[in-house]
Every structure is written in structure tokens, then in C-alpha cells.
Amino acid sequence: MVLGLGSGIFFSHMPFYRLHGMALTSFRYFPGSIFTRVTRALGIEVQWHKFKDPDKAMAKLDEILAQGIPVGLRVGVYHLAYFPKEYRMHFNAHNLCVIGKEGDEYIISDPIGMNKNRLSAENLKKVRFARGTSPPEGRMYYIKSTEHYKPLTADMLYKATLKTCSGMLGIPFPMFGAKGIAYLAKRMRKWEKLYGKHGAAMNLAQVIRMLEEIGTGGAGFRFMYAAFLQEASEFLNKPEWNQLSMELTEVGDLWRDFSYHAARFFKKREGIILSYDDIADKLEVISARETEVFRKLENSIKRG
Amino acid sequence: MKVKDVPQDDEFLQPDGDVLLRDRTYALDDDGKYREIPSAGWAPKNEAIRFSWSNNGEKAKEVLKEVLSGKCSPLKYHMIRLVMTPGILADYTGMSKRKINKLCKPKHFASIKPEELSSIADAMNISVEELTSID
User: Fold this and answer.
1) What is the pLDDT of residue B133?
2) Chain A: residue nearest B1 by CA?
3) Is B34 exposed, middle or buried (0-12, 13-18, 19+ CB in 10 A)?
């Protein structure tokens, strides 16, 4: 629901914006934008802080925690102690929630952790001031007041969904939105020529990682957005949205199929190994299907 | 995706067993309703991750050879091994990128100041002994 209300789903492939020396492929809007949109729509007031000095950042965190308010933090995962070693990249947009402090340890509720856990003050300080692409700079946020809270209305949903559609369909650059997937396909056909066999495989691995990264809800948020459409269809009493939800689910399944075949490049398994052209074809199908789904969604709102 | 199709295979080792990290996937149940299902792991995704790491390991091995033949300092090897870049390391330590690159040469690494050494080791989250050796 939050993903839908925050107009979170998106696609972009930006060869000019690099992460780990490779083009950035993203399936969502910038970190933080979903959160901001949702709280703004619901009239929840949120206080943000950003720090230069790590000690001040920790002191402020303690101060707010002492008032019994849970605090959200943006951290880098490279030094995050409880993450598996394989996930420790220079990824600086992981969010977690601190709910208390005991002695020198903080009690943390991580969005992908099933249980609460503890993290030492020292480690927390380090991850809050991780460096690299878009450093978190000790960002923290908490709910200041819910005085002006507005319950969810149909209008909010329509507005957010229209915004999503315009992002997916209306940006006049080839690398954004549903047509961005076809753009990625076009680039993919050239990868072997551009980067060699090895470099092409590295680039493909990067795309799969962004697509299936922890927290995407599977297939680059497509299943999550389908879940939103279903929930919204009940709320708005619009059965056709449930239909669209099922169509988007099919698109999600296509994405899964794509990763499954792409993964064969890395592990020589028996069976047919596809070429880059073949998996690029798959992406073009996905691109067309996604365009169709979001166009239908847009029309269902605009034409009542 | 159906609930029964939510992948539960191929899990990574979790350093902190209490947390139990899970991928939160959304899947359809038998009535066609979406539900949030925790997923332990999925082979294709993990293969992509392992592929990147094994690549990195190979690169590190090549650098290791150069270290042994005296062309590079251990710093360069550890930097590659831990996917650090000179830019990010410079950010962490407050030294310049040029200085970090310079320290990748054995000649300059030999005359490094102790406090510089410890700040680099700290940024990489390894001990000073580890940083100066190549095991």
C-alpha cells in the first residue's frame, strides 16, 4: 500500500550514473522519495536531521530515544555487522529503525529482519557515516506529530497512481519508465562488443542484483505493486484494478523468468544457454507488457 | 508468483543468527489474494552475487601475484579483496585519493605513518597486522 501511495514503482537504466563502475539500473524512485510522499499525503509530520559530526548525531539519537520515540536511520551496509558478508556492498540507502537503547547497545528493528536485534554503538556510528556514492551523513527521522493525520481517501490513491503512470509512461527520455526496459535491452545487445564476454556478464549480474535485491518484494517491486493494486481495488471497489494486478503479476513472473535464464550465464548448467540477444528479446516483451498495464491503469482513472 | 513458488532455497550464512534476515516477497495464495511471504533465498539471484564475488576474488589473486613480486603493496590487495576503491577509502580516512594511490606502491607503503596505517585499517574494518600482511 505504501509503495503505491508513494508512487514507488519505476524503471531506469542510466549508463552515465555509475555504481561499482557499472551502469545503474533501478526499479524504484530515489531512496526517501516514497517515504516523503506517503507521509505528506497522509499529513504526518516528520522531522529530519542530517549531521556533520558523528558524536552529535549519536547524542541526538539518544535524546529522541529517551523520549520513547522510535527513530529511523539511513545507513550504509558495507560495515553493517549483522548482514551476510556477501551483501556488504557500498550501498548507502538502507533504512533501519532504532527502538531502544540498553547500555552500549541499540535495539534495532530491521525491515528485512524477522526478529529484533542489537547493534553496538560503535558499529552504528560507523554505518551512519558510511562513505561512497550518496553517503547517508547520519540522516535520521522520526514522527513529530500525527495531529493533522488524514485517513486514506480515494483521491489520494488516484493522485498517487496517476503520478506513477506518468513516471512510467510520460518521461521523454528513452532510459526512464517502461520504455527504459527496451532501452536496456538495446544496450544489452551491444554489451559483448562493448565490454567483452567477461564485462558483459558482470553487467548482467549487476542488473539481476538490482532486480532481486533484498527488499524488492521479488522481481523489482512488480509483485509488491501488484499487491497494492489488489488492495486498492478493494478499497475503491474497482474490480478492473484487480484484473490489472493479475496482469502485473504475469509481468513479474516474466521478470523472474528473465533472471532465471540470465543466471545461467554465471553457472554453466545443463540445458540451453541463451545468448544476450535472446534475453534482450525477453526484456522487450516485458517492456511492451508493462507499458500496456500502466496505460490501462491511467485510462481507468482518466476515463472514470 | 504463487505462495508455493516463493523460493526458499540457497540461503546465505547469517553472521547474527538472532536477526534472521529474510527477503519479503509478495505472492498469490490459492484464492488469488496477495500475501507477504518471507523468502530465504533464491538460487539465480545468489548466483549473480557469487559471480560478482568470485570475479573480485580472481582480481585479488592477480594483485596478490604482483604483491609477491614486489610491484604492489599489501594495501592494494586488501583494497581489491574488500571491494574498496581509492575514492571511498580517501573519504573514510580523510587522506587524498592521490595519497592512497601512492600507498599502493611498496616503496611508499614502507614509510607509512602508524596513525595513517591504523586509520586505513579502521576504515576497512581489519586489524593493522592483517593490513600489513597478505594472508
Assistant:
1) 79
2) A253
3) buried
